[in-house]
Amino acid sequence: MPESITITDNRSGESIEVPIVSGGVDATEWRKLLPNIWFYDPAFMTTAACSSSITELDGENGILRYRGYPIEQLAEHSTYLEVAYLLLHGELPTSEQFDTWTHDVTYHTFIHENMRKRFMEGFHYDAHPMGMLVSALAALSTFYPEAKAIDDTAIRHKQIVRLIAKLPTIAACAHRFYSGMPFVYPDNNRPFTANFLNMMFNPVEWIDYDNPVLARALDVLFILHADHEQNCSTTAMRVVGSSHADPYTACSAAAAALYGPRHGGANEQVVRMLTEIGSIENVPDFVKSVKEGSGGRLQGFGHRVYKNYDPRAKIIKKTADQVFEVTGKNPLLDIALKLEEVALNDEYFTSRKLYPNVDFYSGLIYQAMAFPIDMFPVLFAIPRTSGWLAHWEELLEQDSRISRPRQLYTGEPEREYTPIAQRK
Ligand code: ACO
Question: Given strand 14-21, what is the order of strands in its sheet?
């Protein structure tokens, strides 16, 4: 069987053989052979915008691997910082490499005092923490102007370390500010997630912020959210990165993409939906309303790529049990479990291959750990920063051209300018 497709132009009767490369058609070949014939593909439904060796996602079979390692094994045995290293370097670190990496990230957790006092504290008193994070990321570029030297690998590495290290500090700072609490400086004697929990909640006595089970659960959630190949925010990172903007500005654009409810905001919608359902008895009626179209979508169900159980959702269920043992069960859990059971036995959902995604349970865990709902997209952005940066480095190493898609123009044809007095 030849690895090609034959296309016949019925206007001229001419046939052209286009080679298939890695299961698709290479646009460079296409452009040569069929000039001026475009693909019209809004939302990139069938377009691979890049090649990548970072994350493998097989949505039909529910498989997710970072650099070849199954997500289940990483969630079981690894830590977020080790996974961040793996995503960025392509290999798991040796103990020496891991010690250096951990030291470097820990060393860079502090933010410039002006960043906190002049910038973060300049926001309106009830500013949304994700809005603060998006702006703070862009502002960081002004603190580290050398970041513009993106061709220098040592400088690049330093900004990567800074970004991964400072994200939890900025996130906690945003939370403390809008909840009217004093800022807590990083405590670099604590591991990554324990430090974050401390900056978030110390000294609130009703929150178990020092509990290692919660720090480990957060670490697992960070591993699960660290990368997900060409999602909306990573695509934003690559598009902005392709213009050779500095990494802080590109991360700010990626975080902006993550802010939207269709992406980083879905777990918030799940919590709101479960709260609205209110009790297990209301689940069948709610499912009926979803199927009839009057109840909106079943939040936390369905995925553009997964047409099977999201492997991350399975791991999260286990993590939820561990967290609830410490915090007490989130009262919304029973509703969520019932909803999942009803949906997975309903032809409407099974025929459309709609399964729980990562967001179906993550919000419940975050809520049980005392994170306010507004912080959910911020919690997503902290680990995803390592994924964004891995793709940014890959893009630079690939020496990619600037992202610049074509469009199908559907506006007016040429017309004459009319002076304002003559317009009707
Ligand atoms: N509830 C009910 N029906 C659904 C749902 C849902 N959650 N998701 C899809 N469908 C139905 C659609 O109505 C459509 O039915 P139809 O063929 O009868 O018209 C069919 O399933 C296909 O849906 P699409 O919209 O074409 O699927 P798409 O791939 O564009 O959307 C998305 C994927 C946005 C995730 C969608 O499933 C959804 O809105 N889910 C709820 C929100 C959510 O959980 N988002 C988190 C995604 S994960 C992440 O970003 C981290």
Answer: 4-9, 14-21, 24-25
Residues 223, 394: Cα–Cα separation, whole Å: 20
- Of the candidates 124, 380, 366, 392, the residue with the CA atom closest to the CA atom of residue 259: 380
Mutate to test the pocket of ligand 1, among 297, 299, 310, 347 (most ligand atoms within 8 A of CB): 297
One-letter amino acid at 51 equals S
Distance CA 272, CA 389 (A): 32
Residues belonging to the active site: 263, 303, 359
Dihedral pair phi/psi, residue 14, rounded to 5°: -80, 135
Does the beta carbon of 300 lie inside 6 Å of ligand 1? yes
Per-residue pLDDT tens for 302-342?
988 888 888 999 899 899 999 999 999 999 999 999 999 99
pLDDT digits (tens, 9 = 90+) for 220-273: 999 999 999 999 999 999 999 999 999 999 999 999 999 988 888 888 899 999
Q: Ligand 1 within 6 A of 354 CB?
A: yes
Instruction: Judge whether 361 and 320 are in contact, CB under 8 Å.
Output: yes
Whole-model pTM above 0.70?
yes
